[in-house]
Amino acid sequence: MSKIEDRLNELGFPLPQLAAPAGSYLPAVKSGDLVFTSGQLPFRDGELANPGRLGDNVTVEQAQESARYSVLNALAAAKSVIGDLDKIERVVKVNGFVTSTDDFKQQPEVINGASDFLADIFGEAGQHARSALGTNALPKGTCVEIEFIFRVRD
Question: Is-above-0.85 flag for pTM?
Answer without folding.
Answer: yes
